[in-house]
Amino acid sequence: MTPGGSSFGKYGFHLSDDELTRYVNGRIAREILEYLFRRELSPEEVHRYTEEKEDIYRELYRPYLKPAEGLIPFLQELRRHGVPTAIATSAPYTNVSFTLDGTGTREFFREIVDARHVRRGKPDPEIYLLAASRLNRPPEKCIVIEDALLGVQAGLNASMKVIGITTTHTAEELINTHHIIRHFQDLDIELLYRLLRTEQ
Predict the structure, then answer these.
(1) Residue 20 per-residue DSSP state
(2) How far apart are CA 168 and CA 68, in angstroms?
(3) What's the pLDDT tens digit per position in 14-70?
(4) Cis bond upstream, residue 125 (ω within 30)
(5) Please, what is the Cα angle at 65 between 60 and 68, to 5 degrees?
(6) Which H helix or E strand runs over 181?
(7) Do residues 166 and 55 touch, judged by C-beta distance below 8 A?
(8) Where are the extended beta strands (E) located within 41-134?
(9) How far apart are CA 46 and CA 49, in angstroms?
(10) Three-state SS across 168-179?
């Protein structure tokens, strides 16, 4: 990372913070890579560049991998109340496994929807609608917890309630969500039920 954006020296790319927010965070690999290279890529190119990028990500992030504050107790509470949960992420499955297994949270999620399962990245609602379908729940009875602006918009586009968590963006940037939290300790089952009872 560099001040004011990210540099990718090997390929000569430079991204501003605004570009990261608008064209990278929440999008699937093909969309990100074709934005960077400014051309359509073959499936082989997408696979090769994706693997290179994600290998670097896992190497850099491994020392910091741990459950978000309050996440485990929150997931345990959901399980006690029989609330079905799903992961819906634009990340590749290798990163999903890396994160779930590294944090010991895989057991809490009934369904996992990742980049393999969708054609369009966030803010398209496809990934959230597919997760809801797999959980056998109508979208209006689902709650999305998101830290990325494109993910927030995807949840809203899916007609779901959206909780914004301020791990990536400020509360002011997440103002269009239905509720804002600093960490998972701010959540409990009663708050979720209240959200589902409110109008959009």
Answers:
(1) I
(2) 13
(3) 778 788 777 777 677 788 888 888 888 888 887 788 778 777 777 877 888 899 999
(4) no
(5) 135
(6) strand 179-181
(7) no
(8) 86-88, 111-113
(9) 5
(10) CCCCCCCCCCCE
Confidence of residue 5 (pLDDT cuts 50, 70, 90): very low
DSSP string, 21-35: IIIITT--HHHHHHH
Element housing 198 (H / E): none
d(Cα 134, Cα 147) in Å, to the nearest integer?
23
SS3 8: strand
Q: Which long-range contacts (CB under 8 A, 24 or more apart) does 94-103 make?
A: 94/51, 94/54, 94/58, 95/54, 95/57, 95/58, 98/58, 98/65, 99/65, 102/62, 102/65, 103/65, 103/66, 103/67, 103/71
> Tokens standing for 151?
């993910």
Q: Which residue has the tokens 């990210």?
A: 6
According to DSSP, residue 79 is labeled: H
Sequence-separated (6 or more) residues with CB below 8 Å from residue 10: none
Give the separation between CA 98 and CA 110, rounded to whole angstroms. Answer: 17
pTM: 0.76
94 Cβ partners below 8 Å, 6+ apart? 51, 54, 58
Residue 184: both structure tokens together: 């998972």
